[in-house]
Design a protein that fits this description.
heterodimer, A: alpha/beta, 6-stranded mixed sheet, 4-stranded antiparallel sheet, 22 helices, disordered C terminus, B: 582 residues, alpha/beta
Chain lengths: 593, 582
């Protein structure tokens, strides 16, 4: 890797191309082909039963007009109509419920596949691409795809079968009348092509504009205190009015598409009936067609409108569902990083001549060397923007260096498979997460095989034991959103308990205690001390006392290590560390003499 | 056509919020013109569709009598009806969209204005979950009612018209259709309620699964860093299978409803055919009338369904309306005068008789409190976010804060709370709050004083970078520095900062401490903090715990008060092994 870029981690998640979406849909259809055949058969039978009515009515009109009908004939005709109706109802129910079973099976597979894909994303990709896009894909896109699969696909399938059979029935019952359908086809085709080229963009735009209004409203309601403190009310109001105006414009833009589409299609739908009556009537007068055939054809022409309308009106949703599927499948296309089978030969972590840039030509680290002594504590301090956090990410194997090496026991850290890396190096950041799960499950993530005894032991070690024992449901107490919401200090202690269970030999701590109030931090430091004991620790330090307590201190600035030594050595060297330390402690030192 | 109908930007006005029904009626009255016009188009649109079977029957009669002129005439009449239907349909749709958007934008604006007026009180009075729905689903549920209303009018008139025409043609056939169709549609009603229940159960399962997904994604760094993927994959799979089961249950019932939607009107068609055929045979009606009755029986399903749907939408609309009405009825906890004499710029001298804290004009005072909670309570009181105890009010230049209007108070005293957040949108927006009295500070000065210049430089588009909600792509320390910059930028007469550097590293904190005094020169500032770097730079440090315990320069307090020393020098004091080198 000699480019100076962030390894192979893309800054954005990929989107599958149309061919892959088609292939996947085709593969799913192929796997379920038997079910599909059965469904088409059942739906076909239901439609055929539904076509009996107009034929019966046509026959009756034919006989009645000629005064040839008998009372018995009517009874037979009505009985056939009734039986056909019952068949139609039963078969329709069967086709619909079976198609839902099939559709839901496919949907479940797609969304579970997505979540598994999310859970196997390389750390570097998660770090770089962020979680916003991932969240959209796993919620909004799944929803859009669900609509398509739950409603559009079965409705369109049924409508397609129905429309086809209706046309066949029309051709069979009055062959020349099939021609009446032709005039409607070109305008319908053209108008729908016109519409579909614009619809997806317009509807997604409308959805985005509405989402913008909703999230701004939501933020206004939840961030009321900030808005009030900064006196932002008036400006906020203007912003929301602006958002509402764009949402209205986006909504109106979709209306402008529909206002062309709807009347054109509605006018097209009447064309077959018009032609059927006009041509059929004149054919009948000319003796070419029976009265019954004309009646039946006119009714079929009207019956065809329903399925064709369903077919056309779902096209846009299908298109949008396809785009969502492309984004969902994209998550699975993230390349897995290169891994190695080599086992580290020791616990020693060494960074040598490390260069790293998030964007080409803008190096954050510039030839950094660092080698923490195993079992000892190294504090890294330096001004904001010095590259401290980036260094932590490289030491923990989240990113691979652009050039140079970061190795543990001689093996490149970023190439150790994630599952094995956990036993070597763990990164602890200030962003902790309490999962919406029981306390037990919150701990088990780092060691699924741990028994309750082990869990209580680590809870005691981080001073959470007493707290946990006081909980009404003990280890089974649900935490996180929807459960017991715990404070930042306890979240940190929980995170430390997880670390104890994971038991890596090296810890990289990034700003771990900084978000806590002074009282809590003191409490936490005791727990932290127990977690750190006996491990190699690299602390990205905020508070200077952490630096003083460390075995070694590295001052990092502009992507390099500027000063390295023990606290005492650096003080004696009178460099930047010494002057910072003086500012920090002058008064307390003075007060003690 | 216009980009958007100008009438959509109608001012909301003052809503009637006595009850959910009153609110819907108020909304309807507000847009009655569009409802009336939409209703008229809907009548023409439904009427054209209702007329088609009549004309088809007449055309079949003409075919039976081999009347060429009549065949041609009636065929073109069908075509004309199609054109009328298409045209009035488009116009009706235009009014329907207008009505929906008029209602939704009105509710959105009312909710936004109310939320702004309530400010920080809103989240205190209402749970976050409760306001969540108001943004999205309640607005659309209310708007649907107004969207549907004109169609209801069209449907009702169409049903009446068809009934009259059919009864005139043939009483028995007319009765079958007029009584049968509503009966068939209404029979479906009882099935719709369990269907609604199952749909809700399905939505709940979907919500449960998406909260697992959201939770998984939010904690993905932890999961990938420490493990637990398999547990979460299993949890999601279980939730996903529950969705599948619920969706299949819903779909089964939906399939039954769909089958009955075919069957019940179908029974009617069979009945019409049977009765009609006998009537034709008896010579009471013509074959054309039979075809018409058949066609009307098929058509009437649409308007009757519209009526049933409306009842459903109205129910949801009333529920949504009651939630909106409740929000609109909330009032602030504290009263503020509407009007107050303009006192001009004061000196900015702040005093809290309850604790004895006084912040002299133009001074930089650091406040050290025994615990966080009491510090925050005090900071809130200094900005009158919470009421004074027993009438001992905080005063600004000798005047009690309750004599200031809300706008005046927030302009003169800016309290930067710990829970302050960055807002979604361009960063420059968050960094440019309206100025207090006088000019705001130049951007570079504010950024540099808050040691935030490097954050802005590091963003892809600098100040123009779009932030996500809460600025969640930035670290806690970065967010804190940017919020501090925003507060400094506003340059208020009195600035109260609650732990402004708690998430900032020592280097940066030292930078901020060294610049704060200069940018606030001549203006009053109170900083709640226990950081030695900040305390050392303050003109005066006040140590409070309920009431003022001591005041003076930082090193004097250190020298004379052991408890104070323990509180602020804890890092150094609590060191177990090493002594501070001197």
């Amino acid at each position: 890797m000699s480019t100076g870029e962030a390894g192979s981690a893309p800054a954005q998640l990929p989107v599958a191309d149309a061919a892959l979406v088609r292939r996947t849909a085709g593969r799913l259809a192929l796997e379920e082909r038997w079910w599909l055949f059965v469904l088409i058969g059942v739906q076909g039978a239901a439609t055929a039963a539904g076509l009996v009515g107009p034929a019966i009515l046509g026959g009756l009109v034919n006989q009645l007009a000629a005064h040839r009908e008998t009372a018995r004939g009517i009874v037979v005709a009505v009985a056939v109509f009734g039986v056909a109706l019952c068949c139609q109802a039963v078969l329709t129910r069967l086709a619909r419920s079976r198609s839902a079973v099939l559709g839901e099976r496919i949907l479940a597979r797609l969304r579970e596949g997505l979540v598994d894909g999310v859970l196997s994303l390389p750390l570097g990709v998660v770090e770089r691409a962020g979680t916003g896009d991932l969240l959209t894909r796993s919620t909004t896109d799944v929803e859009l795809l669900t609509t398509a699969v739950q409603r559009a696909v079965p409705d369109m399938g049924i409508a397609a079968v129905t429309a086809t059979l209706t046309v066949v029935a029309l051709v069979v019952s009055a062959p020349p009348m099939a021609l009446v359908l032709l005039p409607a086809i070109p305008p319908l085709f053209l108008i729908n092509r016109w519409y579909l080229r614009r619809a997806s963009a317009a509807y997604l735009n409308r959805q985005a504009a509405l989402a913008q209004v909703n999230s701004r409203l939501q933020e206004t309601m939840t961030a009321g205190r900030t808005i009030e403190a900064f006196n932002l009310g008036e400006r906020r109001r203007a912003r929301i009015e602006e958002d509402i105006r764009s949402s209205l414009r986006a909504d109106w833009a979709t209306f402008r598409l529909r206002v062309v589409l709807f009347p054109t299609t509605e006018a097209c739908y009447i064309l077959p009936l018009f032609t059927a009556l006009l041509a059929g009537g004149l054919f009948h007068v000319a003796g070419i067609l029976s009265l019954g055939a004309v009646t039946t054809a006119a009714l079929y022409a009207q019956q065809l409108v329903g399925p064709v309308d369903i077919l056309l009106s779902w096209l846009a949703a299908l298109q949008i569902g396809g785009a969502s599927m492309a984004r969902i499948l994209g998550v699975g296309q993230v390349p897995q990083p290169e891994v190695t089978a080599d086992e580290p030969r020791s616990d020693r972590l060494v960074a040598r001549d490390v260069h790293f840039a998030y964007r080409r030509g803008r190096d954050v680290l510039r030839g950094l060397d660092l080698s923490p002594e195993p079992g000892r504590r190294l504090a890294v301090i330096g001004p904001s923007g010095a590259g401290k956090t980036t260094l932590a990410l490289l030491l923990a194997g989240v990113f691979a260096p652009g050039s140079g090496t970061v190795r543990v026991g001689g093996v490149e850290v970023s190439k150790i498979p994630t599952e094995r890396l956990r036993a070597e190096v763990a990164l602890v950041t200030q962003e902790q997460h309490v999962f919406a799960a029981s306390l037990r499950d919150n701990l088990l993530i780092s060691d699924a095989s741990a028994d309750d005894g082990a869990l209580w032991e680590v809870l005691d070690e981080v001073d959470l034991g007493a707290w946990a024992r006081a909980l009404p449901q003990g280890l089974d107490t649900p935490l996180g959103s929807g459960g017991l919401v715990i404070g930042p200090a306890q979240s940190q202690q929980l995170a430390l308990a997880r670390l104890l269970l994971a038991n890596p030999h090296t810890l990289v701590l990034d700003e771990a205690t900084s978000l806590l109030d002074p009282g809590a931090a003191r409490h936490l430091e005791r727990s932290l001390g127990r977690v750190l004991a006996g491990r190699t620790v690299v602390t990205i330090a905020h508070r200077l006392e952490a630096a003083r307590d460390a075995d070694m201190v590295a001052v990092v600035d502009a992507g390099r290590v500027l000063e390295l030594g023990t606290h005492a050595e650096l003080l004696a060297a009178q460099g930047s560390y010494a002057s910072l330390w003086r500012a920090w402690t002058r008064d307390s030192a003075a007060s003690r003499g | 056509m216009e980009r958007v109908r100008p009438s959509l930007l109608l001012e909301p006005g003052t809503p009637e919020i006595d009850s959910s029904g009153r609110f819907l009626i108020w909304l309807a009255r507000r847009q009655r013109r569009y409802l009336a016009v939409g209703g008229a188009y809907a009548v023409v649109w439904m009427g054209a569709q209702a007329a088609v079977p009549l004309v088809v029957g007449a055309a079949i009669e003409a075919v039976i009598h081999a009347n060429r002129a009549a065949i041609i005439g009636w065929s073109f009449a069908i075509l004309a009806l199609g054109v009328v239907q298409a045209g009035s349909g488009a116009l009706r749709h235009r009014e329907a969209v207008t009505n929906r958007l008029l209602a939704s934008s009105c509710v959105q604006r009312l909710v936004a204005r109310q939320a702004i007026a309530l400010g920080g009180d809103l989240s205190r009075q209402v749970a976050a979950g409760e306001v969540a729905g108001i943004g999205a689903s309640d607005v659309s549920n209310i708007a649907n009612v107004l969207d549907m209303l004109p169609r209801l009018i069209g449907a009702a008139l169409a049903v009446v018209g068809v009934a009259v025409v059919l009864l005139l043609e043939s009483t028995p056939l007319g009765l079958v259709v007029v009584v049968g169709v509503p009966l068939a549609v209404v029979t479906l009603g009882p099935l719709l309620r369990p269907l609604e229940r199952r749909k809700r159960a399905q939505r709940d399962e979907i919500a449960a699964a998406s909260s697992i997904t959201a939770d998984t994604v939010a904690g993905l760094r932890v999961l990938r860093g420490l493990g637990g993927e398999r547990v979460f994959s299993r949890r999601f799979a279980a939730a996903s299978q529950r969705i599948r089961a619920a969706a299949v249950r819903t779909a089964r019932l939906e399939a039954t409803v769909a089958a009955l939607q075919l069957f019940l009107p179908g029974v009617l068609l069979v009945a019409v055919t049977a009765i009609g055929a006998r009537l034709v045979m008896a010579g009471d009606v013509t074959p054309g009338t039979l075809v018409t009755a058949y066609g009307e029986a098929a058509f009437l399903v649409l308007p009757v369904e519209t009526m049933v749907d409306f009842a459903y939408y109205l129910t949801s609309g009333l529920v949504a309306s009651s939630r909106v009405v409740r929000l609109l009825g909330l009032r602030r906890d504290l009263e503020f005068p509407e009007r107050a004499p303009d006192l001009g710029s004061g000196t900015g001298s702040l005093a809290d008789p309850e604790s004895g804290l006084e912040v002299g004009p133009g001074r930089l005072v650091a406040v050290v409190a025994g615990d966080q909670l009491s510090a925050t309570t005090l900071a809130e009181r200094l900005g009158r976010y919470s009421p004074a105890n027993g009438g001992r009010e905080v005063t600004l230049d000798g005047l009690p804060l309750s004599s200031l209007t809300l706008a005046e108070l927030r302009r003169r005293i800016l309290v930067l709370p710990k829970e302050a957040t960055l807002l979604a949108g361009p960063l420059s927006d968050s960094l440019s709050p309206p100025a207090g009295r006088g000019a705001s500070l130049p951007m570079e000065v504010a950024l540099s004083a808050a040691a935030a210049t490097d954050i802005v430089d590091g963003l892809p588009e600098g100040l123009a970078t779009e932030l996500p909600e809460r600025g969640s792509n930035l670290s806690g320390g970065q967010r804190q520095r940017l919020l501090l910059a925003a507060a400094l930028r506003a340059n208020p007469e009195v600035l109260i900062l609650d732990e402004p550097t708690s998430a900032v590293d020592a280097h940066t904190e030292a930078e901020i401490a060294s610049r704060l005094g200069a940018v606030r020169r001549g203006r009053t500032t109170a900083v709640f903090s226990s950081s030695p770097l900040l305390l050392e730079r303050a003109d005066e440090v006040v140590w409070v715990d309920g009431t003022v315990l001591a005041r003076g320069r930082h090193h004097d307090l250190l020298a004379h008060h052991d408890a104070y020393r323990e509180l602020v020098a804890r890092g150094v004091e609590s060191s177990p092994s090493q002594e501070v080198p001197t």
